[in-house]
Design goal:
Helix content is about 40%, strand content about 15%. It is of the alpha/beta class and about 280 residues long.
Length: about 280
């Protein structure tokens, strides 16, 4: 069965999100832990979580992917921003433990002129401060397009972060199809080569989730602008190969395409029709 879902608004709580997911044929979903452009988070509603967990269990849902806010930048030159990132992620992971055995995804950040080596050290230092050996939440580093001073545009950079952390069994990767194509990984013509390289450098056992997006920009553009499935430079043929690839098809796929619920429902229906059990 294809594990497919999209990004949903967390404003009404977990129960509302999973009910929206069911309405559009999804069996996984992603959400922001707090205001994506700020830092405010909703208070925990234990009844809402309890009802959500019951519905999740009854409907054979896959893992839920929480996304950190965009304001989180663990490798900023600004110490205040780094501290905000540490405190925010620590709080997010603590809350994620209320819905155990799910994923928490974040953008590694931008080194803001300090260079990759210093940026990577800041990120791994943050993870070493936050991650506990007893937590059930897997923290995922997202692959990035490489705009500006972004870290995470290459598999090597991701691996360098992981290699400097203490509890590596609690860390994985979320591969974004738009991002890696924009970064220079040819997933249209060289998908097998890309996965071979990922396995050699990081290990496919570290790949937990995929952000399934088309892109508005051509190969190696380093732009990071998502497009609806089949309407961008990656195209429906390549996306069909991705969801059916034997090394990927068991993973959960999360859509971040420019859609409302109706558009996501259409994409989910399309992708299910292209998936081969």
């Amino acid at each position: 069965m294809l594990k497919i879902g999209c990004h949903l608004s967390a404003s009404k709580g977990y129960k509302a999100m999973i009910n929206d997911a069911l309405k559009i044929g999804a069996n996984v979903f992603q959400f922001f832990t707090r205001n994506p452009r700020g830092g405010n988070a909703k208070n925990i509603d234990e009844k809402d979580i309890s009802e959500f967990l019951k519905i999740k269990s009854e409907n054979n849902f896959g893992p839920i992917l929480a996304h950190a806010p965009y304001t989180l930048n663990a490798c900023s030159k600004d110490e205040a921003i780094r501290n905000f990132s540490i405190n925010t992620m620590a709080d997010d992971i603590q809350k994620m433990e209320l819905i155990p055995n799910n994923y928490y995804n974040f953008h590694p950040g931008s080194h803001t002129g300090q260079g990759e080596e210093i940026g990577i050290k800041y990120i791994s230092d943050m993870l070493n401060q936050i991650i506990s050996p007893t937590q059930t939440t897997i923290v995922l580093l997202e692959t990035m397009a490489g705009k500006g001073s972004e870290i995470g545009k290459t598999f090597q950079e991701i691996q360098q972060i992981i290699s400097q952390t203490k509890y590596q069994d609690k860390i994985g990767v979320c591969m974004d199809t738009c991002h890696i194509f924009d970064a220079g990984y040819d997933i249209i013509n060289k998908l097998d080569d890309t996965l071979y390289e990922f396995d050699k450098i990081i290990g496919l056992n570290k790949l937990y989730a995929i952000h399934l997006n088309d892109t508005k920009n051509p190969y190696k553009s380093h732009k990071d602008r998502h497009e609806k499935i089949g309407q961008g430079f990656i195209g429906i043929e390549a996306i069909t190969k991705i969801i059916n690839h034997p090394k990927l098809k068991h993973l959960p796929f999360y859509l971040e395409t420019p859609n409302e619920l109706e558009g996501y429902a259409e994409e989910i229906k399309l992708l299910k029709s292209l998936y081969k059990d």
